[in-house]
Automatic annotation (TrEMBL):
It is a single-pass membrane protein. It holds the Pfam family SRPRB. This is Signal recognition particle receptor subunit beta. It comes from the Eukaryota. Its main location: endoplasmic reticulum.
Length: 261
């Protein structure tokens, strides 16, 4: 009985195919070409949309000087606690995950790929390995120990802001003033102004360097005017956080603005 049903189904399918073939033969060539063109255009458009969705980055880079608290922030984002974040990382610490604060709506959010780039001067070149995939950069500053390190922090931030990949892709940068829970922490406005002053000095001194030596850099700011982050080609935002206490709402907001759900 089953064999008979299969044979009947095959006969029916052959009949349908014959009818479709006959129908196609009776369609005027111009209409047929137009229909094929519409189908092809739709398929190409669909493939482009799918390709765009696949290539939209979900990578956020955490960088800054050693001791600024990047690893604390990494674990707060992933686990909701600062455990394991007390050791200075010598290798990039990376993982893809749903932000801890968004776990209850797991099916509605997109995982983020967070890379904690070592802040030691010898290991900073590792940042270049991840820049092409970056949807955003978080430059972490120690708000407590800022003044003794302001020059060094400004030099590192200058390097980042003048990198060809950052400028051409207009990668947004979050200047995150960490450890604001401490009484001796400097305000984000103070840190912003000091970094702008230091970068302005660097910019002036770098103009004396030959073009061959700065071939991979872009000029910051407007010539003849004091430097300000608002002059950058990419967006630079200043915010506050405390990796120790878990106050990272502004950091999470930056991540979600640049890694869409």
């Amino acid at each position: 009985m089953d064999k008979e049903k299969i044979e009947q189904l095959q006969i029916q399918m052959q009949q349908w195919l014959y009818e479709v073939e006959e129908y196609v033969h009776h369609i005027p060539p111009t209409q047929l070409y137009a229909a094929v063109g519409v189908v092809l255009f739709t398929m190409i458009l669909f493939l482009i949309i799918c390709l765009f969705k696949r290539t939209t980055s979900n990578t956020i880079l955490l960088t800054g000087l050693s001791g600024s608290g990047k690893t604390f922030l990494f674990y707060q984002l992933r686990d909701g606690s600062a455990h394991q974040g007390t050791v200075t990382s010598m290798e990039p610490n990376e993982d893809s995950f749903i932000l801890h604060s968004e776990r209850e709506k797991k099916g509605k959010t997109r995982p983020v790929h967070i890379v904690d780039v070592p802040g030691h001067s010898r290991l900073r070149p590792k940042l270049d390995e991840f820049l092409p995939q970056a949807a955003g950069i978080v430059f972490v500053v120690d708000s407590v120990e800022f003044l003794p390190n302001s020059r060094t922090a400004a030099e590192y931030l200058y390097e980042i802001l003048t990198k060809a990949t950052v400028v051409k892709k207009k990668i947004p940068v979050l200047l995150l003033c960490n450890k604001v829970d401490k009484i001796t922490a400097h305000t984000k406005e103070f840190i912003r102004k000091q970094l702008e002053k230091e970068i302005d000095k660097l910019r002036t001194s770098r103009t004396a360097v030959s073009e061959a030596d700065i071939s991979n850099e872009f000029t910051l700011g407007v010539s003849g005017e004091p430097f300000g982050f608002s002059q950058c080609c990419n967006k630079v935002i200043v915010a506050e956080a405390s990796g120790l206490t878990g106050e990272i709402s502004q950091l999470e907001q930056f991540i979600r603005e640049n890694v869409k759900t």
